[in-house]
Target: 3-oxoacyl-[acyl-carrier-protein] reductase
Amino acid sequence: MSRVALVTGGSRGIGAAIAKALQAAGYTVAANYAGNDEAAAKFTEETGIKTYKWSVADYDACVEGIAKVEAELGPVDVLVNNAGITRDAPFHKMTREQWQQVMDTNLSGVFNMTHPLWPGMRERKFGRVINISSINGQKGQFGQANYSAAKAGDIGFTKALAQEGARAGVTVNAICPGYVATEMVMAVPEKVRESIIATIPVGRLGEPEDIARCVVFLASDDAGFITGSTITANGGQYLT
Ligand code: CAA
Model:
């Protein structure tokens, strides 16, 4: 029987590429999404990948949603915490809501999804938790005090949990994408975006598939000795 992978924010952008790449690698894939029904329906129609709607910011909704996925597809072996939002603003203009929304989704969302799945992964002695952090969690970004803090938090979470999962066969890793050609990055003002691209040594934005290939590797049996690590995939924009 094929392993089951659950990808949050899996119907669009980087998450959709991850879901498709895992499907191509033989996994049974579930894609969670929070809001865009139309995009989710189109994604299912095109790929055959089932989509499930709930907000990762809501713990109870995660418990309920995960139970539904597991009832339909079987125990989740691979969790990809990809769902993320931006609420960019210079700090002097940032509201508490902008801070809280980003924390709730990008940091607490990772707790909310991993916590209910953790006991099962430990019991079955196999699991893969792959957290999609960001270059901006590594280097910080003007206008993203909220996002950078949450994404840096995801890396700390990864390193701590990796130590707890290791003996139980559960690996926990992070991937830090750089600027990837998705709606999120295209929403950055064009002039700002152009100035960012100028700082990427490979001379282009990343493709969602650049990140998806990292996920497929970390999910595989071949990556069993890799835990607590961060894969940096940013075209050379920031060297860690
Ligand atoms: N460094 C220094 N100064 C900067 C700056 C930077 N990187 N970016 C903007 N500024 C300055 C501007 O030059 C301007 O200065 P002046 O007023 O002296 O001309 C000032 O900041 C702009 O201030 P505003 O009050 O006009 O700012 P704003 O309310 O228009 O907001 C912003 C600006 C939201 C930060 C906007 O510049 C922006 O969206 N920047 C992009 C942030 C970014 O990179 N987000 C990443 C999104 S993609 C993502 O998050 C995915 C991922 O993981 C990589």
Notes: Residues 86, 88-90, 93, 134-136, 141-144, 147, 179, 184-185, 188-189, 192 surround acetoacetyl-coenzyme A (CB under 6 Å).
